[in-house]
């Protein structure tokens, strides 16, 4: 059974700092990995999807990497802003065909002005 | 540009009551999912469907039922609501293949 862990559970940084959020998974036979953002009381917004054949994916100030052999993914946020404050979730795709998403518990990010 | 729509957004149920959480998507996606999210926990899969007429259990299916009569709709039925079902419920959909999943805004359910 796939297990996904996100460390740290919470992170507080001053505005402008670059930061890295970590995601690890136990079963390296994943297909894809997806990063989401969740604002309080809201749904999940997809940030980046990394295909299993890719090593990284970029969107604006966000860069996500995937290392299947070590069972790790990282989300790098450059020049953090107060608007980046949210909970960030990673989810792995496993189970051929149905591709069920297994979620970590998330990292709650606070960017202090 | 509706995407995945869930109704209602909020609901309070009494113990033993039943209700249906609605989920509809307008993207013609084959795959649809129901998750629940409890405070401090990750999302857990309740049921999923790979197409109209086909459903299967996820990690936490007890106390729930689903149906998929059309591609667009995937309702989640709670029978005999219990306090343990107090949670936020999310519906998601995606196309075939290991592709990007899209989520609804969630339904916050409280059972008292």
Task: List the SSEs and their pairings.
The complex is a heterodimer of chains A (about 110) and B (about 110).
Chain A: E1 4-7, E2 10-14, E3 19-25, E4 32-38, E5 44-51, E6 56-59, E7 62-67, E8 72-77, E9 86-94, E10 100-103, E11 107-112
Parallel strand pairs in A: 2-11
Antiparallel strand pairs in A: 1-3, 3-8, 4-5, 4-9, 6-7, 7-8, 9-10, 9-11
Chain B: E1 4-7, E2 10-13, E3 19-25, E4 31-37, E5 43-51, E6 54-57, E7 64-66, E8 76-78, E9 87-94, E10 102-103, E11 107-111
Parallel strand pairs in B: 2-11
Antiparallel strand pairs in B: 1-3, 3-8, 4-5, 4-9, 5-6, 7-8, 9-10, 9-11
Keywords:
heterodimer, A: 113 residues, mainly beta, six-stranded mixed β-sheet, 11 strands, 58% strand, B: 112 residues, four-stranded antiparallel β-sheet
Plain-language structure description:
Chain A has 113 residues and is mainly β. Chain A has strands at 4-7, 10-14, 19-25, 32-38, 44-51, 56-59, 62-67, 72-77, 86-94, 100-103, 107-112. Chain B is 0% helix and 50% strand. Chain B has strands spanning 4-7, 10-13, 19-25, 31-37, 43-51, 54-57, 64-66, 76-78, 87-94, 102-103, 107-111. Chain B is globular and about 40 Å long. The chains are: A mainly beta (113), B mainly beta (112). The A-B interface holds A 4, 31-32, 34, 36, 41-46, 49, 51-52, 89, 91, 93, 97-106 and B 31, 33, 35, 40-45, 48, 50, 56, 58, 90, 92, 94, 97-106, 108.
Summarize the structure.
The complex is a heterodimer of chains A (113) and B (112). Chain A is built from no helices and eleven strands.
Shape descriptor of chain B: globular
Over the alpha carbons, how many angstroms does the gyration radius of chain A reach?
A: 14 Å
Return the structural class of chain A.
mainly beta
Could you tell me the mean pLDDT of chain A? 91
Order of helices and strands of chain B: EEEEEEEEEEE
Approximate strand percentage of chain A? over 45%
The largest sheet of chain B is:
7 strands, mixed
The low-confidence runs of chain B, each spanning 5 or more residues with pLDDT under 50, are: none
Class inferred from helices and paired strands of chain B: mainly beta
Helix share, percent of chain B = under 10%
Percentage of residues assigned to helices of chain A = under 10%
* Uncertain segments of chain A: none
Rg of chain B (CA only): 13 Å
